Every structure is written in C-alpha cells, then in structure tokens.
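Box 3.1. Reading complex inputs
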Amino acid sequence: MSGASRQHEEQLLNNVGERVPGFAVLAALLVLWELSVRLEWVVTPTWPAVSTVLLTFWHACVDGTYLEVFGSSLRRLAIGYLIATACAVAIGVAMGVWRRVFLLFEPLVELLRPIPSPAYLPMAILFLGIDDGMKVFMVAFASFFPILLNTVSGVRSVDPVLVDTGRTFGLRRLQIIRRIVLPAAAGYVFTGMRISLAIALIVTVIAEMVAGNSGIGFYILNAQRSFLVPEMYAGVIALALLGFALNKGFVALERYALTWHEGWNAATT
Amino acid sequence: MKWDVDVRPEIAVEGVGKVFGAFTAIEDLSFEVPKGRFISLLGPSGCGKSTILRMLAGLAAPTRGAVSFKGAPVLEPPPGMVYVFQQYTKSLFPWLTVLGNVEFGARSPHAARAGGRTGREECMETLRLVGLEAHAASYPWQLSGGMQQRVAIARALVARPEVLLMDEPFSALDALTRESLQDLLLRLWSELALTVVFVTHDIAEAIYLSDEIVVLSSAPSRILTRVSVEIARPREQLATRESAQFLAHRRSLYQLVVGREQAA
C-alpha cells in the first residue's frame, strides 16, 4: 500500500516536471502577445494588450458580470444535458438489450447523427422560438447521440456470464438491467457523457449567439458588435476556463463513480 | 446403477438433446440426481458437459426432452439451485467489494424464496465459511484466482441453495489451490447437506469428489457409463488418492475416456 502511494507520488512529480515545457509555450505566447502591443508591432483597436484583457476579465469576475452571464448559460446547458443523458441512457439500454429496439431506431439514429447541430438551429427557431426552450432543445439534441451510441456499445459489451449470473440468482430481466447491465456498462456511458459535455458547451454558445439576449455566447458576440474589444477577448478566456473546469469536474466525478473501474482494468489487462 | 425406489430424484434429465444449427451437441441423455448426492459429469473437452449443466440450471433450453427439479419442469433458473461458473473473473461483479458480491447473493430473489436471514452478519458468516472474512472490503480483482472462486462459492451459498451446479470451477487454478478448494467444497457439501452436480474433465478430481460419475462421450454426447465411487468419506488428499479403490477407478476411467479418444 505504501509502495503504491510512493510510486503514485513519484509519478505525480514526474508529471509536474513533464508539464513544464507545455506551460512555458503558453507563457511565451502570452508574453509575445503583450510585446506585440507594447512594442507597437501590431497597432489596431482589435488587438488590445493581454494585460488589458486580463484586467477586463478580472473586473468582470469581481463585479458579478460573469456570474449572471454564465449563470444563464450553465442553466440551459445543465437542463439540456441532463435531459439528453436520461433519454440517451434509457433508449441506449433498450437498444443494447433488445435487438428489435435496435433495428427500430438504428436507421433514424444513423440519419440524424451526422447532421452538424447548427444546421437544425433554424428549424428549432421556427418551432420553438428564440427563448430557452429552443436552446435547451439544441443542447439536448446534440448531446444525445454520443451518449446513446456509447451506451449501446457498453450494453452490448457486457459479458454474458454476468447476465447468466443474475439469472441463476433468480433476477428478472429489469433487475438484471438495473443491477448488472447498467453498472457493467457505466464506463462506456461516462465516456459518452464526457464527449457530450464538450458538445453541449459548444451548442449552448452557438445558440446564444444566434438568438436571444443572454448567456456567454450573446455576451461575446455583443461585445464584438459594440466594439468592446477587451470584453470580447475576456469573454473567450472566461469560456475557455469554464470548458476546462467542466471537463476537470466531470473527470473527477467519473473517477469517484468508477473507482473500481481503473483497478479492474489494470488487474484484467 | 439403481437408487432406492423411494428416493425421489432431486433432478431428473429425461431424453434431453441439444442441437446448435447443424451441430448435434447432445444426442439423448437421461440420468437423475438423488438428493444429497455429489455427482460429476466427466468427459473430454468440448463434449457438451457445460451445455448439459446449463440446461439443468435453466440457463439454456434443451432442443428435446426435459429437465425437472423436484418434479417440476425446469424452464428458467429455479429457486434452490445456483450455478457456479468456471470463469470467476467474469462472474464476480467488479464494481462490488467481496462483501458486496456476497450481499448480492443474499438479497437475490432466490435467497428471498429460500427464507432465512440475509443481513450483513449472515454474509460475513458465509465469508468466514470460505475463509475470506479478512477480505470483505477488497474488490474481487484484487484477490488471487482461488480466493475469487471462494467468493463466488460464498455468494452462491448465501442464497441457501439445495443444489450447486458447478462448471469446471477449479480448472483455471493451480494444482495446490485446486486441491484445497476441493476439500473446502467437500466440507461445505457435507455440512450444508447440499446436492452437487460438478462438471470436470479431470478424472482424478471426479473420483476424489464424487459419489457417482456420469461419463460422457465426445459430441454428439451420450452417457458411456455411470460409475459409483464408494470410497469412504471424509476423503483426504493423500490417503484417498493413494488407495487401491481410487487407483482402480482412475485406471478404468482413464482407459474409457482417453482410450476412446485415441481410438477415435
């Protein structure tokens, strides 16, 4: 146990060492950005100094602008994403377990899945208007497919011995699905959810840019239209940090929920 | 071999056959398993032993004929029977701890039908029975193969089955572990008054464990002979395996099983 933790620590240190060059590139680019303005290599109002942008970013953070802007975006994202997850897992399990259900939905899924989400935005506006309903729908629809496909693969990859184990203890089909198939497929479901989380953020921003007057998408676009150039850049930086935090948060959640998965993988492969 | 007529068979297999497409796995099989007996199905690899066991367990349906348990036809896994799989790594739930796996058995519908307590204490008692109480909080994949199969046995036993159906449960284990698990199984069988149907391709293992051995031919599988093993119990790895009876059984079964394979 202590051997394992020491090894873990050493690995952590190695990782920190390994990461130095990557952060150095990032820092160098930021310095270059700053110099390009200070030394007047680029002179245009569309290219403010990074220090100006960061200052604007800081002000927007402390005066609560981002709280409001991201609050409305995150609410849409969360609702759409959760609806997508619930529907995709339910339908995905059904498609994975019952071949008939799979054959029933497969052509439809294969037809809808490749459509880039912005393409059905105009239709969504026609039917749902420009308010939250449309945006939640867009997020849910785009997030749905990766979770669905991964759930189907996950359910199909469940070892038949596990299912037979459930049967020999007298479990009914629905009990087998809930107590055996779902946990066994959880790794795949989480992979789909991770992919969809990134997609959900993209679609939220697009939908907010196209319609409406709130959210980070609107904020960035509006800043550009009002020639609030530092605000525009600051908004993009804030969005980058949000995307990063969402992914990190999700990975942590996944680790927590699937603690067994890592060890099991290591032990069986 | 005839059993007393007043002993109703626990399991009866009548004219069972199994066909997969154009392949006849099992031709025409009839035998019965009296209550409390330890019976082995012995045959070469690929002879359909596991298929027979799956049909006894209600996990697979025979193409013709019927299996009955306590007089009722087996159409799905009946309460009172638990199947122990050869691939313990695939059969144990990797997301549950050792105790969690045993609790799965304790809270299963079959355990509920069998009655009795099914709490955590009961599960720990069962783990003690197989010598794993110290590993309750571990995950199965952290344990050795022999320990994992003991978890699977504990999970089966906690559901209070009358019949254990075991599909080559020790074939993936090393020789020493296998022998210690054989002794564990015999102890549990006699203490808990179980009926066991045990599939194996290991002649010595079949003799060591069984009251009766049903010897199967390669596919299409049929019964070559049924051998009654009347070696005294409790059996002991050295004394039993060195006894004249054991060696005589081993010789005749070897000639029957391996001799036929070579002749074919």
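In summary: Chain B touches chain A through 29 residues (CB under 8 Å).
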